[in-house]
Amino acid sequence: MSSDDDYFDEKLADFFDELDELDNLPLLDAIATITDRYSDFKYLDEGGIKIIHSCRDLKTGREVAMASLKKSAKDQQKELFLKEARLTAALQHPNIIPLHDLGLKDQQPWFTMKLVSGSSLEQVLKNLKEGKSQQFSELNERLDAFMKICDALAYAHSRGVLHLDIKPDNIQISDYGDVLLCDWGLAKVMASVCDEELLECYTFNPKGDDLTIDGLVKGTPGYMAPEQTRLIKEKKGVHTDIFSLGCVLYKILTLEKPFKGADLITVMNNTVKGHYRKPTEINSLIPSSLEAVCLKALSPNPEERYASVTDLQKEILDYRQGFATDAENASLLKLMRLWYKRHRTLSIASLIIVFISLFTSWFAFNNLKLEKLNALQKAEKSELEASKLKLENEYHRKFNKGAAPRFLERAQLAFNTHHFDDAINFCNSAVELDPTLQDAWTLKGTLHLIYEEFNSAIIAFKKAHERKRLLELAQKFAQIKNDDKSELNTEQFTLLFKRIQQMNNNHLTGSLIHHKAYSQISLEKRVELSKEIILAQNNKAIKRHTSPYSFNFHFDPKSHSLDLSNNPWMQSCLILQNFPAHTADLSNTGIKNFICFRNQPLRSLNVSRTKIIELQTLENKDLRELNISHTSISNLTKLKSLSIRVLNISHSAVRDSIILRDLKDLEILTIHPGQLNAQDIKQLNKKVKIIISKN
């Protein structure tokens, strides 16, 4: 080839190299100029406050799922949504839905995750039951999926995370066999086990956020554990997720959920009492080994369930490999039969030997065979025990004694903000890491006292080597109520309150009242308790009161109307928090703020002729009518966040009409003569009706 040809080929190659470089520039420029990363939104599904869309990620070119909150979501729900996203992102496992991105748009949080093309396990099992599909028709296929979910949950537990909403609807099965555990919205971080970086996902949940289904419970009826129903007093833990796994296993075996009922309360009662049909009563072909595993996981008593997910997995693995499960407590005959199936050739040879030496060594050989069988089973279990020990050793190496004070600090913060469940968890972590930390034992004992768990309080106070008066108090009430799971009656609780009140421990009395106010107690007991505690809390004020003493307390359960008016001696009534009142009249009383009305579903409130001077503690979002006449309140800025329709400010310190102009929902305004001038009144919304009060 001539030199001219070589030169031409070289230039031609350079030309195409330049074209390749030019071809890359459009993609580089396109990515650099992307402002709205996600497009082509398509609705997929939604829940109470969350909505899911599919969309295209313009930077990666892939289809993803985006979860976002509805516009009605409150700030606290936004915070919990973001914590769910951060927690999900921290759980890196093949069977946990992966999170891709997280952000805010117009103060509305969102996150993107893998878009799973397929169906939920619930839909798959429904289609199988109705004969619409043969997917997962084989029990072994369904058990494969179950084992993958167990893998995901065992990993989450090792990171210190509880799922607390395990159900077939939250298990996605892709078209290509992927199994993913989704929706960690109800997840809870276990402070004593979690990595330190996961503590940022530990939420101090307000009591109201724990009630998500018709204002009752957090979880899914039919799959939740008894301790999630709030019908019993039991803490949630690893055993809670194991119960839900048992429900999923039941559905896999029978294609039906275990706990049913005509209404929600019936379902929850059946859950607590363990009322359900055994799997073999629905399908007699279900292996008894698997039924035994399922029944153990579904035990109403947490202590009788499997101690860990890996223990449950091991039982399923034993069944699939031909071994007897611990749950079924197999007979000698069944053990031998299973051994024979696993070792058919060896069994035949053994039988020949047995027949040959039947009259000389039958008993010895039989014992030897049983010992060998036990040895085989123990050897297979040793690997699981070793891995469990390794995990525990890693935990103790990771958290040393020096971390205990940090847990105590978080416990104190939770206690001070009345998040007692969180406080007790952090206390437990602190004393586990450093059993000599006396302040942690003291706080732990105080929390048990608040929970009316007096035996546990005694143990903690003795470990603290101080707080003699609290120890004596716990010992006295342990004699009155020796069962830590039961509750004091109204008379006994009032006595406890008075005894603590005599110690002048205001923080403890306030915490005791707060916990009781937010407990799940009957309306009758709440009314009875409120009367007694209000009298006890205002005992000194009653004695100082010069006029004849009387106590007005009336609640109409039909209209939800609460009347405590004309009790001028009443300065404190914190026990009224969480009271189910729609209308409240506390006029002519000595209350100084709105704290006693927290978490009440109030629509109408009368606090006229009280000592309240500000509105900052008013947090009742549903309030529509408010009477603050004859008070020293002057600043109405707080009302801008409410939808007040009827407002009485007569004979109050209010003189400025600027805020009144911004109350768009205001319909009726009561003022006293000369409180607002004609120009101020003219600038109000024309629909507002003005009433002039001279009294």
From TrEMBL:
Membrane-spanning intervals of the chain: 346-365
GO molecular function ontology, one term from the record: ATP binding
Keywords per UniProt: ATP-binding, Chromatin regulator, Chromosome, Coiled coil, DNA damage, DNA repair, Kinase, Leucine-rich repeat, Membrane, Nucleotide-binding, Repeat, Transferase, Transmembrane, Transmembrane helix
GO biological process: chromatin organization; DNA repair
The Protein kinase domain, residue ranges: 38-317
Intracellular or extracellular location(s): Chromosome
One CC-aspect GO term: chromosome
Stored Pfam families: Pkinase
Keyword Thylakoid among UniProt keywords: no
InterPro entries recorded: Kinase-like_dom_sf, Leu-rich_rpt, LRR_dom_sf, Prot_kinase_dom, TPR-like_helical_dom_sf, TPR_rpt
Family: Belongs to the Tonsoku family.
Protein name (database record): Serine/threonine-protein kinase
Organism the protein comes from: Lentisphaera araneosa HTCC2155
